[in-house]
Amino acid sequence: MLTALFALAGCSEGFPVPDPSSVVSLVIEPAELTVYTSPEGGSITDFELMSRRVDGSLVELEEAEWTLSNRTVGEIDETGEFEASVDNGGVANVLARFAGIEAQALVTVVFVDVIASEGIDVAAFDVPRIAHPGLWTYPPNGVNLPRNTPSLSFQWADVGATAARIRFRSAVTDLTVYAAGTSWTADEATWASLVGTNAGGSVEVELSLLVGTEVWSEEVITVNVNRFDARGAIYYWSTSAYGIRRIAYGSQAEDFLTAATTGYCVGCHSVRGDRIGYTFDGGNGAFGLRNIGSGTDVIHHESGVFGNFNTISPDESRVLVALQGSLLLYDAGTGALIGEVATGGWATHPDWSPDGT
Fold first, then answer.
1. Looking at residues 225-238, what average pLDDT do you find?
2. Residue 329 and residue 237 share a domain
3. Which domain, by its residues, includes 296?
4. Total structural domains within the chain
5. CATH number at residue 248
6. Hey, is 151 helix, strand or coil?
7. Most CB contacts within 10 A, which of 45, 52, 82, 331?
8. What are phi and psi for residue 17, nearest 5 degrees?
9. Element of type H or E holding 276
10. Residue 24, SS3?
11. Strands across the sheet with 153-156, in order?
12. Do residues 328 and 243 share a domain?
């Protein structure tokens, strides 16, 4: 008798697992869903999985594997319960699998947040807006940003406004910022969420300024966010460092070839791909050519080669160096002198054409 009771209890829990051979396809309900989330809490939704049988009927199915194509938008458990992230929005496919059969649905998570500087009366913006072109000063409309671009400073004209409202909107973002002054820069976490969520898409940015009791509005600008990260660096001559400093994209400036790192003032330089040519200790000084990636010198500054301005060929195989009116050509792989380039006159500041000719 006890065994029979247990058997009845087991049959009453959930739905019976169907014979896989009887399942033709799977259907997730709802097939498309838009939910809203914020730092205060994420939305929770139950997806249901239906199995379509050979006879055409739809029967709810509990035994399945649930996954998300984009796990930054939230989490889904083994029952199909989806909880949206509290950090950002995004789009993801909801996938369910049973007996080698797969179904998918689409979930869009819209991240909503309000950031307000202390002392700003946000209710003052609840009046009809007056169009006032020319308020934006930075960034330009349509700017295209690599995903790893550091936070931008959004700037507007000084028209005596006591507060500003900047609203960032896209299919997955609705961020409203209230700020004082003539600019606003997102903190690292807010900016990372904004560009990460919208990578591969665009964000519309709307500006309103509180001028007296009026609200002036500017035309919406679009910020495009590339889904790829930028690579490379900027190399520039620093008067304070007496040499060349480097800013890897998205990072801070650092000494590269400066008086502090070499013991010399390092001046005239050119960069092409993975090579940099440079001159030590002023005009007609020692010349060097370095592989940036490996940090090795093809032409060491103590090798007896001298020069001023230089240019490297597009294929990085040659370097042309100006010295007292002459142009000297070197092999950029070995450092060997190839010869002097005849010019018929005094030559300086060479620059190699992009097509190599």
1. 92
2. yes
3. 233-341
4. 3
5. 2.40.10.480
6. coil
7. 82
8. -75, 125
9. strand 275-280
10. strand
11. 136-138, 153-156, 183-185
12. yes
